[in-house]
Amino acid sequence: AKEEHGNAFQFYSREMSEHALERAELESALRRALERKEFELFYQPKVDTRSGRIIGAEALIRWHHPERGMVSPTRFIPMAEEIGLIVPIGEWVINTACAQNKAWQDAGLPPISVSVNLSARQFNQDDLVDSIASALESWGLDAKHLQLKLTESMVMNSAELFITKLQELEDLGVQLSLDDFGTGYSSLSYLKRFPLHQLKIDQSFVRDIVTDADDAAITSTVTSLGHSLNLKVIAEGVETEEQVAFLREHQCDEMQGYFFSKPLPARDFASLLRKH
Ligand code: C2E
Ligand code: CA
Ligand code: CA
């Protein structure tokens, strides 16, 4: 009986463990990825709707796994959040983005702002503001050339704490953008109390603006709402000329998406910016 039990357990655990093993392997590879310098930032241009010029870039992390090749951030960022690694990875992202932006300026490229995604766990670190201030200081980057992308999930614990932290960041002089707007929980009454500079309309709304009347209504309404609150509005996931025309007509301030460019390695982004 003992043996039967053993076999049953073995059978049961084999399927489970393949999954768990793969995950454990990925996790331990992730723990070593920073020191092994396997991360890279890609940069996707953000375009001013009126002038058509590149006015910024969003930094998006890439992980070159030694055996698996490129692992998507949608896979490893949630994992990094669970095991707390998102804090050192997030610091690396901020430092790398600040260093890169300063290097582009020093090379004589037109000054742009670079935006970075923050995760909720990173945002809630007590030393977030200090660590951003010291990144700016050590690279000599003007705070106005760094934009932080925040999400509604950061408000969940306490709106008061959230606002206090936003004010500290605003005092630092960085730009604050509320990401994935409309997909979360935040109420409109909060929105007017947040010291923000920009709203980002999520690509799930932008995707069908040309064919879906509801998405068109949401996008144009969010744009007007943003403007009446004195915020700039940016649309992400812009892939077609028709979407560009719609966003231009509705006076969305900035656009980002494959229509303009995919996220690019730093070198390629710099040549795009130089040619521009
Ligand atoms: P996100 O913040 O919503 O970033 C936009 C995603 O849409 C990016 O995917 C980008 O490459 C992709 N994208 C850009 N233009 C288009 C388009 O025209 N059409 C479509 N279909 N997609 C487009 P990516 O780079 O794979 O990143 C996925 C997610 O991973 C990001 O979603 C963000 O939540 C997270 N992420 C990426 N980099 C970082 C980072 O440095 N820190 C943190 N905390 N999260 C990051
Ligand atoms: Ca984001
Ligand atoms: Ca998004």
From TrEMBL:
Domain of life (superkingdom): Bacteria
EAL domain span: 23-276
Membrane-spanning parts: none
Name of this chain's protein: GGDEF domain-containing response regulator
Section of the entire sequence shown: 306 to 581 of 581
